[in-house]
Amino acid sequence: MEETKKLSKINQLTGTIEIPGDKSISHRAVMFGSIANGKTEISNFLMGADCLSTVSCFKKMGVAIDIQEGHVTVEGNGFDGLKEPSDILDVGNSGTTTRLMVGILAGAPFHSCIIGDESIAKRPMSRVTNPLRMMGAKIDGREDGQYTPLSVRGGNLQAIHYHSPVASAQVKSAILLAGLNTKNEETTVTEPHKSRDHTERMLRAFGVDVKEDENSASIIGGQSLQATNIFVPGDISSAAFFLVAGAIVPNSEILLKNVGINPTRTGILDVLEQMGASIEITPKEGHTFEPVADIVIRTSSLKGTTISGDLIPKLIDEIPVIALLASQAEGDTIIRDASELKVKETNRIDTVVGELKKIGATIQATDDGMIISGKTKLTGNAKVSSHGDHRIGMMLAIASCITEEPIELESVDAIDVSYPTFFEHLDSLAK
Ligand SMILES: O=C(O)C1=C[C@@H](OP(=O)(O)O)[C@@H](O)[C@H](O)C1
Ligand SMILES: C=C(OP(=O)(O)O)C(=O)O
C-alpha cells in the first residue's frame, strides 16, 4: 500500500543516532558469503528492502541464509554450490542486486531469469550485459538485453580489459565478479573516475587478490573465496539526510555514530566543508577493511559551491539532499557532470527539481545536473511525492523540517528500501 504522511516543521534537532548498516556493503557481504567456502557472519546488516531482495535471490539459488534482526549467517559452498533457481529471481527495486548478481550468474553453468519492479525495468542493463557478453556469457533481455526481464545462461568466460564509459561501481563489480570465473587470466576494468571500491576491499577480506590502480581494478580468474566475518559500518548515504538536517534546522546538534568514511564515498563531507558547515569527524580505531567515524553536525551558515568531475561518484546518491542543502546556502550551487542521476530509481534531476520547486526552492535543471540559488524560505503547503524513490522521499521529509507550512508526502513507504528506521530516528531527534 502506498502511504501518504503529513509532515510539519521541527524547531530543533538534538541527540545521537546510530546510522544503520551500509547498503552497498550489506549486499556484497551476502553475495560474497554465498559464493565463499564456509560460514560468513555479518553484523549490523541493513534490513532494508533492497538488501532483503539480495538475500531472497541467493536463497533461491540454494544458499542457506539465516537472518536475526541485523545479524546474518550465510553458509557458502563455494561458487559451485550455487544451484539453478527453479523460480524467477526478483530484485525488487535494487539496481545493485541486479547488476552485481548478473556478474555472478554470468559464470554460473545454469539458466536464471531476473525481474524487478517498474523502476528497475527502466534502468539500463546494457552497461553490464554488453561487457559480460564480450566475456562469453549468454544473456538476453528486453530490447536485446538492454532492460529487465533478463535471462542468463552462464558458463566458461574469457577475461577482458574493459574501459567503462561510466564511472559505476555496479559495472566494475559485475565484471570483476565474472572475472573470477575465467581460467587464470587477468580481467581489468578502467573507469573515467574512481567509483566506490567496496567490492575490491571486501574481496580481499574473503582472501582474493585484487589490484587497484588510480581508476582501474584487476583480478586473476580461478581464485576462490574463504568465508569471513563482516561488520557493516553505518551508511554515509543514510547519514547524509541527518547531516543536512543538522546543518539547516535551527539550534541543532546531532551526533551520528559509526558512519562509514571510505574515501570513495565521502563527497558529502567535502561538500559540507566547502559550504562552511560546522562539522566534526572523529575516526574510530579497530575497523578492518572499511574506515568508520563518529560525526557531529551543528546548525550552520552556508555558502553555495560547485560540485563536478571526480567528486560526483563520491556523492552520487546524496545529490537529492545536497540540492535541499544548497537551497539554504547563500548564492548559487552548481552541480555538473551528474547525468547518471537520470538513470537511478527515478530521473533524479527531474524529480529533485520538480518536487523542490513545489515547496518554493529556486532550482533549475540542466543537461547534466542542476543549479540551485539560495538562501530561500521553503513554503510547504503542498502535496509532494517520493515518486517511489527512497532518496527523494527522505530528502522531502528533511525539507519538511524547515517548511513554513506542513507538506503531504506521498509514497512515503519507498523509504524502506534503504532506511526502514528513518522516521524513528527523525522523531527521536526532534525537540
Ligand atoms: O555499487 C553500489 O553498491 C552502488 C553504486 C552506485 O551506482 P552506480 O554503480 O550505478 O554508479 C550507487 O548509486 C548505488 O546506490 C550503489
Ligand atoms: C541508486 C541507488 O541504488 P541501486 O542502484 O542499488 O538501486 C540508491 O540507493 O540511491
From TrEMBL:
Its main location: cytoplasm. Phosphoenolpyruvate binds at K23, G95, R123, Q170, R348, R391. Pfam families: EPSP_synthase (PF00275). GO terms for molecular function: 3-phosphoshikimate 1-carboxyvinyltransferase activity. PROSITE patterns: EPSP_SYNTHASE_1, EPSP_SYNTHASE_2. 3-phosphoshikimate binds at K23, S24, R28, S168, Q170, D317, K344. The keyword DNA repair does not apply. It is found in: Cytoplasm. Its EC number is 2.5.1.19. Pathway: Metabolic intermediate biosynthesis; chorismate biosynthesis; chorismate from D-erythrose 4-phosphate and phosphoenolpyruvate: step 6/7. Residues 9-426 form the Enolpyruvate transferase domain. InterPro entries: Enolpyruvate_Tfrase_dom (IPR001986), Enolpyruvate_Tfrase_sf (IPR036968), EPSP_synthase (IPR006264), EPSP_synthase_CS (IPR023193), RNA3'P_cycl/enolpyr_Trfase_a/b (IPR013792). Catalyzes the transfer of the enolpyruvyl moiety of phosphoenolpyruvate (PEP) to the 5-hydroxyl of shikimate-3-phosphate (S3P) to produce enolpyruvyl shikimate-3-phosphate and inorganic phosphate. Belongs to the EPSP synthase family. PANTHER family: AROM/DEHYDROQUINATE SYNTHASE, PENTAFUNCTIONAL AROM POLYPEPTIDE. Monomer. This is 3-phosphoshikimate 1-carboxyvinyltransferase. It comes from Metabacillus halosaccharovorans. The gene is aroA.
